[in-house]
Design goal:
- The chain is α/β, with parallel strands linked by helices.
- It folds into two domains: about 25-190, Spore Coat Polysaccharide Biosynthesis Protein SpsA, Chain A (Alpha-Beta Complex); about 195-275, no CATH class.
- The protein contains eight helices and 13 strands.
- The strands form three sheets. The protein has a seven-stranded mixed beta sheet. It has a four-stranded mixed beta sheet with strand order 5-13-7-8.
- Helix 3 (about 65-70) links the parallel strand 2 and strand 3.
- Helix 6 (about 195-215) runs parallel beside helix 8 and helix 7 (about 220-240) runs antiparallel to helix 8 (about 250-275).
- It is globular.
């Protein structure tokens, strides 16, 4: 009888250990949004496989907040619309208590194949963060050339193992540990209409102008040449010809030309800003 009791006790312990080993790590998805009523429903629908969803609404004046509230799993937070987007991204990360965090923009979609790969990846302790490819859908067409793909992004990380320095809108996440790579891509639909393209260009060029001004960039002849001619021209030639952006139709041309013009426009706004402060 004593042997039978000991055997039963050992079996229960073994079963408990097995159950602990098969507990799935939790995943939270974080977003920030400002006037994203056209896009955010798609992003939220693609995120429903996660354990928690946090959305930071940055002073939206359209139906963004109303749409978010229609998703029971999504938790909504209101914050000022800081021009350095990473400050509100960092706030969103802080609201999650899941084991892993995936940052998703409201104009992006996680495919079903990627969702399954994410589930598998977070159950493996080999890495603390993952990069993955992103497909940019530009006015209805996937840009497969012109340096637009794979457009590798670092979006998935263990909570507490990555963060932003919060200095620039285009800075990368800083990771403490090994980084892996996922195979499946997520989709980016940034411009439903031309007006959205112009609106976002105004935002990013304004931020870049302010960043240059705060960094002490001078309005020298060298910088005029660099930012108004050399850099835009070299970027266009590289993207459109060397990286074969011409293979993506008129969308490929607009993407390459728009990228070049954005640098010219950013510097022009920087000169305007400097003039106002002198």
């Amino acid at each position: 009888m004593k042997l039978e009791i000991n055997s039963l006790f050992w079996d229960n312990s073994a079963e408990n250990n097995i159950n602990k080993e098969h507990i799935m790590p939790t995943l939270g998805i974080s977003m920030i949004a400002h006037n994203e009523e056209k896009q955010i429903a798609g992003a939220l629908k693609s995120s429903l496989f996660a354990d928690d969803i946090v959305v930071v609404n940055c002073e939206s004046t359209d139906k963004t907040a109303e749409i978010i509230s229609g998703f029971a799993k999504a938790r909504l937070f209101d914050r000022p619309n800081n021009r350095n987007l990473n400050i509100n991204k960092s706030f969103g990360f802080e609201q999650l208590e899941t084991d892993w965090i995936f940052y998703l923009d409201p104009d992006e979609i996680i495919t079903q194949e990627l969702a399954e790969e994410i589930k598998q990846a977070i159950s493996n302790d080999q890495y603390v963060a993952y990069k993955l490819p992103r497909k940019n859908i530009f006015f209805g067409r996937w840009l497969a050339h012109g340096s637009q793909y794979p457009d590798t992004q670092l979006r998935l990380f263990k909570r507490g193992k990555a963060g932003f320095a919060n200095r620039h809108v285009h800075e990368m996440l800083k990771v403490d540990g090994a980084i892996g790579m996922l195979k499946n891509a997520f989709e980016h639909h940034p411009y439903p209409e031309l007006a959205d393209y112009m609106r976002k260009m105004m935002f990013y060029t304004g931020f870049q102008a302010e960043f240059w001004e705060a960094s002490g960039l001078s309005c020298s002849l060298f910088n005029h040449f660099r930012h108004m001619f050399f850099r835009p021209a070299s970027r266009f030639l590289r993207r459109y010809f060397l990286k074969q952006g011409f293979r993506d139709g008129w969308q490929g041309f607009v993407a390459a030309a728009g990228d070049a013009f954005q640098n010219i426009f950013s510097y022009a706004r920087f000169i305007e800003l400097k003039g106002k402060k002198e």
